[in-house]
Amino acid sequence: MKSSIDHIPLRKQRELGRVLEILHEEFEDALKEGTADFKKRGRILKIILFGSYAKGGWVDEPFTMKGYRSDFDLLIIVNDRRLCEFAEYWYKAADRLIHDKSIETPVSFIVHSRREVNTYLKEGQYFFSDIRKEGIVLYELDDEPLAEPQALLPSDRLRVAQEHFDHRFSTASKYLKGSRFYLDEKDLNEAAFVMHQSLEQAYSCVLLTLTNYGPPSHNIKFLRSLAEEQDRRLAEAFPRDHHRERAWFNTLNEAYVKARYSKHYEISEEALSWLGERTTLLLELVKDVCTQHLKMLERKSD
Predict the structure, then answer these.
(1) How many CB atoms lie within 10 A of CB 204?
(2) How many domains in the chain?
(3) Euclidean distance between the first and final Cα of the chain, in Å?
(4) Would you say 132 and 121 are in contact if contact means Cβ atoms under 8 Å apart?
């Protein structure tokens, strides 16, 4: 795998250095009180940069393109699957990466054990195959290589992608229909929760159809960033150039938990109307992006 980040501007390299510091600090802090053997032996084995900053072609122009800015996308590989649990080992790191003033670039990361990653590679999981091919190793504890990837036949890629699209797009559309019903009923919290589910399914639809991988996350900001890295046309749905609309999206991101369980959760009818319009547009874009990809796979499988 590659290890040089010389193609990235120096200020971005410094940001990545700070990102690595925070990830290591918070992981060590999460383990220090642990008494279980797997916690005592817990290690980060590799941190790999993938996506646009690894391949080139990133966007860092927050005042253009409707405020779009590429993320640093990172794969963190640990030595035990139990250490992948976000709520127990990684949420503090994610929070610090958002609020650290020396890091201007948004950071998205996924965490898997080495055994999981090697299994995905041997099964022809092309999301991880692309990371192995294009990713840049920023940190590694040892030089043990990842498994050699196995390629799926084009016909198998088409079959898997079509199954993902049919299921996820239909589910996203049903949730959007449900959110409209609850909005008409003035049940705003329920409308927010169901709309959140529509967005979660829509972004997962893109990720699974195009890459055969979707992280186990309900964070629609995180899913959005990964999906938009696959096709930047999706960024048209939720522009970032107005503070109020960014705040509305952030409020919707909290709906998965708070709209159901917190009596203090509030979202306005105006916000939900705008979010519903943008979600409708997103589904149109998702359909276009996925259909185009499926047609490409059809041509390759003929």
Answers:
(1) 25
(2) 2
(3) 32
(4) yes
The CA distance from 205 to 196, in Å, is: 14
Domain that residue 79 falls in: 10-140
CATH (domain of 290): 1.20.120.330
CATH assignment at residue 133? 3.30.460
pLDDT one-digit tens code per residue, 207-260: 999 999 999 899 999 999 999 999 999 999 998 888 899 999 999 999 999 999
Q: Which residues of 30-45 are buried (b: 16+ CB within 10 A; e: fewer)?
A: bbeeeeeeebeebebb
Q: Smallest Cα–Cα separation from 222: which of 108, 89, 127?
A: 108
**Do residues 72 and 49 make contact, with C-beta atoms less than 8 angstroms apart?**
yes
CA 234 to CA 227: how far, in whole Å?
8
Inside any domain, residue 37: yes
159-214 tens-digit pLDDT: 999 999 999 999 999 999 999 999 999 999 999 999 999 999 999 999 999 999 99
Indicate the pTM of the whole model. Answer: 0.90
- Sheet containing 72-78: order of strands: 107-113, 72-78, 44-50, 136-140
Tally of CB atoms within 10 A around 287: 16
Beta pairing class for 44-50 and 72-78: antiparallel
For residue 80, report the phi and psi dihedrals to the nearest 5 degrees.
Answer: -150, 130
